[in-house]
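User: My advisor asked me to double-check a structure prediction for Alpha/beta hydrolase before group meeting. I don't want to rely on an old file, so could you generate it fresh from this sequence?
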Amino acid sequence: MAVGVVVVPGYGDSEPAHWQSFACRRHPQWRRVRQADWERPEVEPWVVALDAEVRALDGPLVLVAHSLGCITVVEWAARRRADVRGALLVAPADTDELPFFADVPLAPLPFPSIVVASRNDPYVRFERAQAFAAAWGSRLVDAGAAGHLNAAAGYGDWPRIGFWLGPWLGTTPGAGAAAGRGVAAVLPG
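Assistant: Sure, here is a fresh prediction for Alpha/beta hydrolase from the sequence you gave:
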């Protein structure tokens, strides 16, 4: 059975030049969460929208999230169950100080995951992203000084995500769940 992919953008959606948008154009079979209100995020509607995309797939899946989308995935995982092979959580936003979303859940995820974090992300301190990864049981990838890992930081067409997703999708060798916990550096590309 083929493994489905659900892309989970963050606040404001991912613009056309964002790596998530490039990935969706490269893989038109991937599903992308559509939120009713990208500018005023609320936990419940965002989790419901993610759940709808997950339920539309029949079989195992992989989640590919960015920023507030990462927190949506973690919130969803605390409430729902599905056959998730893994989750790539890139630049998780720290929502504890935001009045419009929930505090970040700090429980282990029920599936393998990788957190990719930058040392100069304006939306989460690296040490906080490290704490998220540890609490979630995620492998941490240190992206160095990579901003918010979005189009503005130079992350448009980013084929490196295939390296991380490959083991979960059964397509290529890479550093997915089989690599275990720990910290790794981002490889170029």
